Prior knowledge:
By secondary structure, this protein is an alpha+beta fold. It has three domains: 7-72 and 125-149, Ribosomal Protein S5, domain 2 (2-Layer Sandwich), CATH 3.30.230.10; 82-115, no CATH class; 151-288, Butyryl-CoA Dehydrogenase, subunit A, domain 3 (Up-down Bundle). Helices cover 62% and strands 16% of the residues. The radius of gyration is 37 Å and the shape is rod-shaped. The N and C termini lie close together (11 Å).
Amino acid sequence: MIYSMTGYGRCETEENHRKVTVEISAINHRYLDINIRMPKILAHFEDELRKIVKQKIARGKLDINIYYQSTAEEDIEIMINENLCKAYVDGFTKIADIFGVENDMKLSHLMQMGDLLIIQKKSGDNDEVSVVLKKALESALEELQVMRLREGEALKTDIFQKVKDLSQLIEAISSRSYLIVDEYKKKLEARIAVLLENIAVDPSRMATEVAFFADKCAVDEELTRLKSHIKQLVNILEEDGVVGRKLDFLMQEINREANTIGSKANDYAITKHVVSLKTEVEKIREQVQNLE
């Protein structure tokens, strides 16, 4: 199975009055880049969450948003702002002393002042929070992987079709390359015949010139390497797991061989095939860069 690097996954999990929502969006990246945004009270789980992601994802830029809600009793703590409360009490007492009035301050009066009670959220039971957090993350990752696999298989099918087109172009170049020397020899003989008319030409000199041209424009080695690269490409596409980098490197090598053939083969027809070959290589490379 081959995975794309792009996709989206989401999961909402609720247990024991705690609800966790995880959203993951993934795009292309050379390496694995994980960005996690979550409430501060969950920050101590980050390393653990990263390990879970790394077990399933090898490449791509992942933006992970985690939302947490809890109505569990142990997750809420009420703090008293003692300094502010003392200031209010001292203030009431001072007013009563200065103006000689009865200090009838009650608790209900203090509560109306505001900011005396601070409601603080806690992460609560770490084990219980960890369970619901991991469940939500793993489910979101599974949904992400389903999308990445579906897109990866579609890319694989498309690349296979383009590889067939590559093979046909390579065969066309190979067939044409065998005719170049003969055509050059005929053109050279015709040109010499026109220039020298009835003057005899040294056959060995002619043979040397043709041999030099044949050596200069020979692309047999490049074609052999191209065919080998195509076989490797097909074999890699049949593998499971992370193949993107290997394929990307292979496409660079195929493009290099195509450039060499284009510069060596002194032939218009081959040049046209090379242009088409490089166009197909670029299309495949664009697709390959989407693969994990």
